[in-house]
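Why predict the complex rather than its parts? Because the way molecules touch one another can change local conformation, and only a joint prediction can capture that. The input here totals 637 residues.
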Amino acid sequence: MDNFAARGRFGVAERKKAKRRILCIAVALSGLLQFGLRRPRSRAAATATTVGRHDARRRAANGSRVIAPPKIRRHWELYLLILPPVLYLIIFKYVPMFGVQIAFKDFNVVQGIWGSPWAGLKHFEAFFQSPNFRLIIRNTIVISFYSLVAGFPVPILLALALNEIRNGLFKKSVQMITYAPHFISTVVMVSIVILMLTPHVGVVDRLYSLFGKDMTNFMGIPEYFKSIYVWSGVWQEMGYASIIYMAALASVDPALYEAAKMDGAPRWRKIVHIDLPSLIPITVILLILNLGNIMNVGFEKIFLMQNPLNLSSSEVISTYVYKVGLVGANFSFSTAVGLFNSVVNLVLLIAVNFFARKASETSLW
Amino acid sequence: MLAVLYPLVYIVSSSFSSPRAVVSGQVWLFPVEFSLRAYKSIFRSSQLMTGYYNTVVYTVFGTLINLAFTILMAYPLSVRQFYGRHLFMTLLMITMFFSGGLIPTYLLVKELNMLDTRWAMWLPGALSVFQVIVARTFFQSSIPQELAEAAQMDGCRDTRYLVSVVLPLSKPIIAVMTLMYAVGHWNAYFDALIYLRSEKLFPLQYVLRNLLILNAADPEMLANTAAKIRDQGFEQALKYALIVVASVPVLIMYPFVQKHFVKGVMIGSLKG
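Output of the joint prediction:
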């Protein structure tokens, strides 16, 4: 309770300022929009709210938008409804996009985003030439690919197996239990991993010593890091990821199974000839999405699992951006690294999608 | 399945066992020397309780904001006669594939004077594109077009229609969204790491991170074991108990909505 009170006291003036600033940005942006970027919308809003019939008729006479105005008028409330989220998108998503320009500038706090002097491609060059560059890129790609290769087939197998279980209760409980880890937070997940791998105390190390191996500090050995990361991820997500495949399997036409039964096909034939083909479209789409994200290794988990000993194997782009940018206050350089990453991702996504469309007619767009 | 289950059972068992048993490695599957000491000291720690309180606040209000924004965005997008629908859709999709990135977003939040306030936890992630698309697909596919026409005949405005027809019909999808967003808020620590400075505002996960991963034990919690400083075993048992305490609320919540969320994911997969 007193948290709120305290904030209230110190915050009134501050917040007013903030509010005014939000307003400023909003007004500036709507100006920008009117300027031509988003013409139909601003026009629509204007017609809908204030100007009304006269303006509409005039535009109708123009010929280009004979039908639009009455349509807009009938649904003007929709524009009102969508206004807050759109404002939100503009402020919290599009304004930062303009902020990306600091990747090409020497940002300093005093001059702000727009005032800082241009620096050209300096930060990109610095990044490409830095000794960390190859290490980080390699870690990022290796961890991603490893996750993909290890993590992609498991949910499919799980779904196929679950699909074969006829006993309802057993199936339900398996599903419950395998979905559960998805809801465990990253922090808790990583602590579980660390606890289980602790020398002397953790289960895994005790198992190791049962088999006569030496005590090992798993988290401290770079070679183990990637496997720990990937397989704990598989453990956490396989159940949840299988839902989507289960759904695809559920929509298979039962007539196919009946036909197979009539023909006396054994189970594995059914799986190979009916189940697998029905999973292909969704698999391709997920694969595209995953490949498009290959340069995006989730920040949270890696960051938590990092320690100075395994850094050589665990530093990836996102953690690097965080460390250099926020901890090291090197805003421009870190933005450049992040931008480089986004662009690579975008290009990858488009490329993969292109090939998928050529090859299998299944694609995102 | 056993592979998935075992770590969970192990954690719970360890948390109920006595520190000595945990350290000496007697715990394999079931609790050894049942003890509640770890739990007692958790509920005595003010740092953790503040964290708990904060997380509840972030989760409740954050989820409400999320829901409001998502529905407000998704509903108009689902109306076929809504002029400019594709424009808004494009506006939305772009943010899914391209974002300003960490630093510009941070600078924006700073610029808005939201650093170190609760707003920083609520607003920057107020809308998930994926959820909007799921909700939109649901509105489009599960609510008959005839309803809208009938309502319009009776002179029902869009807002009224949304509130009194669409929302009651969309309970399953709203349940799913609530779960997804709430779990997200409950488990989030990254925003706290970036935006928050003062201890009073830290959510549970952030506190947990400090305790579990950075090994910075809360002195208050160990106070009652002051006699045995460096009581390593107790620290271990404490960690297991912490994990349980932090995860239980979410895990309890989810079986209730499970039925719905399988459906929700399916809707989402129709047009991912």
